[in-house]
Amino acid sequence: MTNVMNSPNVLDDGPSDYQKARIPASEFETRDDYLDHELKIFSPRRWKLNLPGRDFSFEWEDLVPALAGTIGITVMFSAVISAYAAGFGLDQAFVIENVRLELMVSATLFVILVSGFLNPRANLAGNHGPMIPLIGMIAASGGHPLALGIMIGIFGMALSLSKGGSKLVNLTSHGVSGGLLIYLGAIGVLSQLGQFKDWAIANGVGPVFIVVLMVTTVVYAYLAKIRKRWMAIPVCSGLALVISLAMGAPFEFVTSPGLPSFNPMYWWGETTGWKLGLPDLSHFIAVTPFAILAVGMWSPDFLGHRVFQELNYPKEAKNALMDVDDTMTSVSLRQATASIIGGGNVSSSWGTFMIPSAIAKRPIPGGAILTGVFCILLAVTGYPMDLTVWRPIMCIALLVGVFMPLLEAGIQMVKDNQGAETAGICILGSAVVNPVFGWALTMLLDNNGLIGNAERKNTLGIADRIIIPGAAFTLCTISMLLVGMIPGIPALL
Known about the structure:
The protein is mainly α. It has one domain (61-483). The protein has helices at residues 17-21, 31-41, 63-88, 92-118, 135-140, 145-161, 164-170, 174-202, 206-225, 232-246, 264-267, 281-296, 298-312, 324-341, 351-359, 364-381, 383-388, 391-413, 417-432, 435-447, 462-483. The longest helix is centred in the middle third of the chain and has 29 residues, at 174-202. The chain is globular.
């Protein structure tokens, strides 16, 4: 029987360019050479049907970012919904059901359909980690999750359609990018270490912290040495699970199989779901600064993820790099859709998928489809959700899969004294206020030759030097002033 996957597709007159350029892995001296070749010949169709065998392939390396992304997104979804639940007085059962809803909606409509089949250059629409600390403030200020989701979707689509996202990425130099990644990586590492240590001490298993971290450090270093660092999340998380259980750390399965409600009126009823009812005008006004801030954070977030591809992919693999504007479109649509159905997540580019995927030298679609399948299985079975949010697994997964790679990538991007100066200012601004402020301020200064390479301003027009960076800095600063994110200045709203 003819193999349909490898034969000319019935939708075309003959084999695709990808099919013509494919060479069996056995023809290459190393696996890395084969993966590099796959990236070079990858040429997906934008917002058209892409099929396995015709436009991309599945490789066993796709399993690692899929597992890492599934673990990471469940952790992040749980953090957002738990913060909302605390603010609105909702119980753990609500958190589990809403996380399940988010997993199902993300997996079916956007992870598999969009990033897997329709536009494999759009990174998966995941979670907006930097917004998690603000969830309590949103609830306290009279914000409504549905209003927030709709406003983020509207602002995000406006930025995407105007190509503003890619423009901001192109105006961010390596020094600014390096400083941003170093700060995010360092802060994330310290945060996860602190949370893991506190958890271990509180549960009477203090030695678990140091033993798991020592083993993780050795294994992570070895994986880096043999150039298999993309396996860090499943390997290190698995070791953390085994070691923690062996040393007596408390754990039990409590989440049973099931499906969430997909009825928006249940989630946005006055006595069911969120128990908030539908939002009114005051709710939309209250969430507007937070929505602007969330979308303002997207460009540096997307930039950090694309950088990993640029660092690990061959230079000829331009078609495999995530498209910032298409990713922004997908994230915006996913945000509005999931919020209307009943979800509470705040969306952004999916870092816990993209970072290991880039390190593994794989394009987006194969891993995206597998991630979507894993998310659906996780949501339906229920029990694995308890593992993904267990502190040893959660902290180790984020450490080796997100924050250490961020830190390392940032260091790699700082290549000279001028880059170090720019990175230092970015780190300072991020530490004083937050990463969005640090990024916007440093981009404005850098593009005008006030820091870093003084010749940079001569290569840019007035729009790229002043108007766009100035507007980004002004908009971000005003948004932070309104919601009280500038230290020492009370919220203006």
